[in-house]
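Renewal narrative, Specific Aim 1. Our central claim is that a sequence can be written position by position from structural information alone. The example that follows is taken directly from our test logs and has not been curated for this report. It begins with the structure tokens describing the chain, in the order in which they were read.
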């Protein structure tokens, strides 16, 4: 049976998703973002307990090797549906959740079957033997500017030939545009480094007009996680300021092009000891951190209006 003491392959995650959809038909619904290059269906689950809730969109595993992200997304889905804790119930039932546990389906499959460290999509390049692009550099927001991505198909941060050249990114843009009135918060799950990153990724010379609020929310997230007995420390701030310049990311596209005010990238455990190969015993502790962090993040977001 499915659980959170090991990592699962795509097929197992999808079977679990089917089971969840069948078990909670009154409050769950499948949605389809689109098709990957290799023809897989990019699936999501919507969880909605009542009408009129504000929406939160969670995109996970855009980078193939970041397995802790889909493990955390499935854990989070399970908590929203099964937790009996008052705070979690309130979080679950006061928002409409749109969650894509494995976005980069082709890359994820490849990371299981062939190359554990695969990051990118799997679409071949027309004039180069290297395969794939960094889906998180392929969105049409400051695409390929400021050295925040590479034009070399062999680079791990290859931006793709054009914005939306990757079928996965193109499908997500179309899907998010279609449902843009149904969510106000966008969160992208990544690993690793223990950061809560906000826009902008494309420059550290400029900050969003609501950056003070963004930092206040970030602090609430980090403080909540530090309050757990694990003592895990998260840094927070703009991507360009805290980490590095990254252009054409999904979060920045949503923030800039869909005019959303709250968008974060969570970079999960650890700080590099295990890196992308986070041991399975850390899945649940990581998820506990996610939950207290999310509770604080959403609470503070609501408080600041
Ligand atoms: O470089 C990335 O795409 C992310 N880091 S990772 O090590 N997981 O590859 C950070 C991207 C965060 N930036 C924004 N979304 N603005
Ligand atoms: Zn990543």
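The sequence written for that structure reads:
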């Amino acid at each position: 049976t499915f659980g959170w003491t090991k990592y699962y392959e795509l097929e197992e995650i999808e079977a679990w998703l089917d089971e969840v959809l069948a078990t909670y038909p009154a409050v769950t619904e499948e949605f389809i973002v689109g098709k990957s290059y290799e023809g897989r269906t990019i699936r999501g689950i919507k969880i909605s307990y009542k009408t009129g809730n504000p929406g939160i969109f969670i995109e996970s595993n855009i980078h193939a090797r970041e397995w802790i992200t889909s493990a955390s997304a499935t854990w989070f889905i399970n908590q929203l549906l099964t937790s009996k804790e008052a705070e979690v119930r309130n979080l679950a039932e006061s928002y409409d959740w749109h969650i894509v546990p494995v976005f980069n389906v082709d890359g994820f499959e490849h990371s299981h079957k062939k190359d554990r460290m695969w990051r990118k999509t799997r679409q071949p390049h027309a004039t180069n033997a290297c395969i794939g692009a960094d889906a998180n550099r392929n969105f049409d927001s400051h695409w390929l500017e400021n050295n925040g991505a590479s034009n070399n198909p062999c680079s791990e941060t290859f931006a793709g030939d054009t914005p939306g050249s990757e079928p996965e990114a193109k499908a997500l843009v179309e899907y998010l545009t279609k449902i843009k009135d149904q969510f106000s918060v966008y969160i992208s799950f990544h690993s690793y480094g223990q950061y809560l990153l906000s826009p902008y990724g494309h420059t550290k010379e400029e900050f969003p007009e609501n950056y003070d609020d963004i930092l206040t929310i970030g602090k609430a997230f980090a403080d909540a996680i530090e309050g757990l007995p694990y003592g895990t420390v998260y840094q927070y701030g703009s991507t360009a300021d805290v980490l590095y310049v990254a252009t054409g990311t999904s979060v920045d596209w949503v923030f800039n092009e869909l005019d959303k005010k709250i968008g974060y990238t969570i970079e999960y455990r650890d700080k590099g000891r295990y890196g992308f190969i986070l041991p399975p015993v850390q899945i649940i502790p990581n998820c506990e951190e996610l939950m207290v962090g999310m509770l604080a993040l959403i609470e503070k977001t609501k408080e600041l209006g």
